[in-house]
């Protein structure tokens, strides 16, 4: 498929207009992304998860939440009982055709092309769901679609998605405030880190550490994508157009680590932009930022369990515009800390 560079130019201009508040922080975003890419050498995801029943995974999730906060457990149980808000599906035995059909259906629903009732009926008709990747999600409607694999991953998915549900507020996607792009994944990923710690002395030690490595592996992809799209923004600001020639010229100027990846994957990144009808800046930002801030939060909670209250403080600040105030109130240092990704491996989890 040929790349429509006119469309890429339009989507980049659109990002410059609509994402001004986000792009204001491009310097720190570049710094964090480069630090992650430079210091992480995980080349493939961990896939050797042992079989764990869904019932056992949920018990693990509930015991973990109870260990840190009765309020979090109570919130989980209250939302878990909402059959009209939380839908569970199994990924067992699905084929590629059904997976693509469900993804297309979800895309139609998010865009408002089909109504909610029809969407639910079609999901039930297609039956179970996606196979690969982190496909569980909270839709703009506030409905949760939880996809289960009957491995330890289910415990993480439950904890992660219910963190979003606990603090979810009804905002149109286009009206979400600045903090949503920066903070919405912090609580969920901090709780993933804590869950890994919680499981390291159990029979699930290997799988728990594998899930932790996967989180970093996937976020490294987000970092590459974020840096590529920031490069597009820079090209447009200087030239007023995006072309294949300009992209090639700028890739040649990149540091060797980026150059190697961008030469291979730049067409893939461009096709993603066209398929999604826009840059993926915001989606990439939230995971890159969360990887670091969640680590700080996790360390503080481990040293002082009463700091779990910061999970609630951040949850409330997600739907606010004042990012610096939210970070100051929770003592999370995003802008001046000299981040070292290596400490993720060296100082907390014993491999």
Please explain how this structure is put together.
This protein has 351 residues and is mainly α. It has helices at 5-18, 20-23, 26-39, 54-68, 70-80, 96-110, 116-126, 153-167, 178-183, 186-199, 205-239, 244-253, 256-275, 281-303, 309-317, 323-329, 342-346, and strands at 86-90, 137-138, 144-148. The chain folds into 2 domains: 5-45 and 208-346, no CATH class; 54-171, no CATH class. A 3-stranded mixed beta sheet has the order 1-3-2, covered by helices on one side. The protein is globular and about 55 Å long. Residues 127-134 and 347-351 have low confidence and may be disordered.
Task: Supply the key terms.
single chain; 351 residues; mainly alpha; 2 domains; three-stranded mixed β-sheet; 17 helices; 3% strand
Strand content: under 5%
- The SSE order reads HHHHHEHHEEHHHHHHHHHH
Kindly state the mean pLDDT as a whole number?
86
Helix content: 55-70%
Short note summarizing the structure:
It is built from 17 helices and three strands. With 351 residues, the chain is mostly helical.
Topology:
Layout: H1 5-18, H2 20-23, H3 26-39, H4 54-68, H5 70-80, E1 86-90, H6 96-110, H7 116-126, E2 137-138, E3 144-148, H8 153-167, H9 178-183, H10 186-199, H11 205-239, H12 244-253, H13 256-275, H14 281-303, H15 309-317, H16 323-329, H17 342-346
Parallel strand pairs: 1-3
Antiparallel strand pairs: 2-3
Helix pairs in contact: 1-11, 3-11, 3-14, 4-5, 4-8, 5-8, 6-7, 8-10, 10-11, 10-14, 11-13, 11-14, 12-13
